[in-house]
Each structure stands twice: as structure tokens, then as C-alpha cells.
Specification:
By secondary structure, the protein is mostly helical. It is built from seven helices and no strands.
Length: 255
């Protein structure tokens, strides 16, 4: 009868299922990795459709915002002014800063939102996006508007004469941007918040009528619905029934 180390060596046998345990662990890890990759791809797809759908809405609402601001400027400059559509040539010269501001505000807010949380078409999430859009869009417009006016001046596309030397115009641009941003924040944040609320309402309707986001095949339809809605609401204000313009201008000027 043996004892001590010899007995331990004879009685020890490696477990036969060691290879099976390792294989099972590897299979579980691979399944988890594939599930995470699929979840990441789905989240990326939803975020992309979410942002693409909101972009034309944000740009169109900013363009409408600028259209009403232009009419309000004409109204304040002439006490005999009667509500009418401004010249399209004037509007086109002044609308680009609004489109850029709306585009950037939507990209920043929606991009940050989908980075911190999953894209979803719930009411509260869309209202949150609309709120921050309404806060940011007027500020960006205050940045880009002086730049646009500067470009119009140096290209002789403005009716203003005697602009001064180029150095003076550059100085006016640099020192004019902070004041423009401040005025936009003070005067236009309320209207911007209304624009953000409208964007949230329109996006909610689009996601629930053309969506939902959870269906991969609905992505193109949701994006096209966002583009069509943005173009449609801008057309209704700029070239649609005059009663719509009257209603919006009364709300804008009273706010």
C-alpha cells in the first residue's frame, strides 16, 4: 500500500470536461460579442435616421424664423408698413445664415443627444431636443448674420452705400458679432423655443406615421418624410396662403 506523494500522483486525473468548459466559455463570449456588435449597429442606424430626419425640419424652421424677422424689421422701420411678402431677392440674400444656423443647431443637439442616449421617438426626448435647439439656433444665427452682411458688403450685393474701407468693415464684423449674439439671445430666444416646439411636434408625427425607428425598412420613408415636411412648411409660409403668414407674423411680433 503506497502513501504520500506516490499515492497522490496515482489517484490524480485531470477532469475530462476541461476542454468542454473552455469551448463553452468561448462560445458565450463570441455570442456576447456578436450581440453587442448588432446592438451597436442598430443604435448607429437609429441615430443616423433620427438626425437625418430632424435636419430639414431644423433648417426649414430657422429659414421661416428669418423670414418673419425680416418682415418684423420692415415693420419697425416704417410705421406705415402694411404686411406684405418681402422681395424674394432680399430674402435669399439673408436666409443662408438661418439655414446654416438651423442645420448646425440640429446637428449639434441631435448628435449630442444620440451620443448620450439612444435615439427614440418619445415625446419627452423630442421635446428635449426641441428645447435645446430653440436655445442654440438664435445664438448661431447671431454669429452668422454679421458674417453674411459682411460678405454682401464686400461683394456689392447690398443696397447700403459708403461702407468704408475694408479694414473698417472687418473691424465692424469682429466687434459686431458679440452684440449680435447678445441681441439674438435677448430678443429671439422665445421665438426660437416656439420653433423648437414645432420641430418636436412635427418629428413626433413623422416618426409615428412613417416609422417607427425600430423597423429597419422604414428608414428611407422616415427620412423622406422629414425632407418633404421641411420643404412643405417653408413653402407654405413663403409662398402659401397669405393667412398663414398673417397668423405667424402676429404670433412672432407679439412674442
Amino acid at each position: 500500500m503506497s502513501s504520500g506523494p506516490n499515492m497522490i500522483r496515482r489517484n490524480f486525473a485531470p477532469p475530462e470536461d476541461t476542454g468542454g468548459v473552455a469551448s463553452e466559455t468561448r462560445d458565450r463570449f463570441d455570442a456576447y460579442r456578436l450581440a453587442e456588435e448588432a446592438r451597436f449597429k442598430e443604435a448607429t442606424r437609429r441615430s443616423r435616421i433620427f438626425i437625418i430626419t430632424l435636419l430639414p425640419l431644423g433648417a426649414a424652421l430657422a429659414a421661416i424664423f428669418q423670414y418673419l424677422a425680416l418682415i418684423d424689421l420692415l415693420d419697425n422701420a416704417d410705421y406705415r408698413y402694411q404686411l406684405t411678402r418681402p422681395g424674394m431677392d432680399v430674402y435669399l440674400r439673408l436666409v443662408f445664415p438661418a439655414v446654416i444656423a438651423g442645420f448646425l443647431a440640429t446637428t449639434i443637439v441631435a448628435g449630442a443627444f444620440t451620443f448620450l442616449a439612444e435615439a427614440a421617438e418619445s415625446v419627452w426626448r423630442l421635446l428635449t431636443v426641441g428645447f435645446f435647439y430653440g436655445m442654440l439656433m438664435p445664438l448661431l444665427l447671431g454669429v452668422f448674420m454679421p458674417i453674411n452682411l459682411f460678405v454682401l458688403e464686400i461683394t456689392d450685393l447690398t443696397r447700403v452705400t459708403n461702407q468704408g474701407a475694408l479694414e473698417d468693415q472687418i473691424g465692424d464684423l469682429i466687434f459686431g458679432i458679440p452684440g449680435s449674439v447678445y441681441l439674438s439671445w435677448v430678443l429671439d430666444t422665445g421665438s426660437g423655443m416656439i420653433a423648437g416646439l414645432l420641430m418636436a411636434v412635427l418629428a413626433f408625427a413623422i416618426f409615428h406615421l412613417a416609422g417607427p425607428l425600430s423597423k429597419p425598412g422604414r428608414g428611407p420613408a422616415i427620412s423622406l418624410a422629414g425632407l418633404g415636411t421641411g420643404v412643405g412648411i417653408l413653402f407654405l409660409v413663403v409662398a402659401g396662403p397669405f393667412s398663414i403668414l398673417e397668423f405667424l407674423f402676429e404670433r412672432y411680433s407679439s412674442g
